[in-house]
Amino acid sequence: xxxxxxxxxxxxxxxxxxxxxxxxxxxxxxxxxxxxxxxxxxxxxxxxxxxxxxxxxxxxxxxxxxxxxxxxxxxxxxxxxxxxxxxxxxxxxxxxxxxxxxxxxxxxxxxxxxxxxxxxxxxxxxxxxxxxxxxxxxxxxxxxxxxxxxxxxxxxxxxxxxxxxxxxxxxxxxxxxxxxxxxxxxxxxxxxxxxxxxxxxxxxxxxxxxxxxxxxxxxxxxxxxxxxxxxxxxxxxxxxxxxxxxxxxxxxxxxxxxxxxxxxxxxxxxxxxxxxxxxxxxxxxxxxxxxxxxxxxxxxxxxxxxxxxxxxxxxxxxxxxxxxxxxxxxxxxxxxxxxxxxxxxxxxxxxxxxxxxxxxxxxxxxxxxxxxxxxxx
Length: 377
Known about the structure:
By secondary structure, this protein is of the alpha/beta class. Helices cover 31% and strands 25% of the residues. The chain has eleven helices and 14 strands. It has helices spanning 11-19, 47-56, 67-72, 107-118, 149-159, 181-191, 198-208, 265-273, 278-290, 304-318, 335-344; strands at 24-27, 36-41, 58-65, 94-96, 127-137, 166-171, 195-197, 212-222, 225-234, 240-246, 254-262, 293-299, 349-353, 370-375. Helix 2 packs across helix 4. The longest helix is centred in the last third of the chain and has 15 residues, at 304-318.
């Protein structure tokens, strides 16, 4: 143990405990100021586990599940406009109807409701709304998409061989304040629990899984000069993302990086070749003045086939040396995908181009990345 870092358990140890029906503690990373959640597999939940979480965790007991499962049960979002800064995807709360469920709040009632959310035979009509269990929709791809406890719960359940549904509960101290890592270590020792971090789970999954594959690479004439264009396809939804690089760098050299959400493939490629876009212009000016850098464009809306078609057209145009956009086809940043693209591009130390005041990026070390500087543009 050091003044700032506390050694945690391994992901394999945590998976073994989940398999055995035990509860684990999951924190963001090894920073002493981070908070933690109890997590277990919903498939093995019991009255005793719910009572344990309520007694020792004191936070809200929630059930992370997949978007597919939420659609099967017609679990609509809790609000139409989610303004939560962490983008936590609550659905309407539920209770199981009948089956001995009374008020819905007892440990027995809550355990029955959670088991119903896992059971494939459960129908939407079997659930009363509102209720005392709070489902959360996890991002498809788990912590490789979003480094949250919601996604960690799904990943641990799946890695342990269970249905991708978990149970989580924030851990508070007896005085009602949030437990920090030193407090969580004491809780773990007293209750004989494993403590692991989301950043270690990201690193574990990066070794065994990947959500991206490189589709193409070519020199690209932009209105900002010559760049190299790298196209990546996301394996879980076929979406196509683009990275532009300028210059070369050593393995551990800090590199200027901007991760951008592109509107549509038309808007993006037009702004790179013919149309002014103040925000993009400022980023390219920064990178050009530094003679090296990376801009990652996360495509959230454009049809993948359209993007690949336009990239092929764009690639053929490059031989002419012209700065020209290909013909148009009508047609919250995903930092995890961007991180994997940077890893593929052998970027490890980042000078992040951002004007945002929100600087916390959970799980960066797990991706093999370190933000060494925040640069305004």
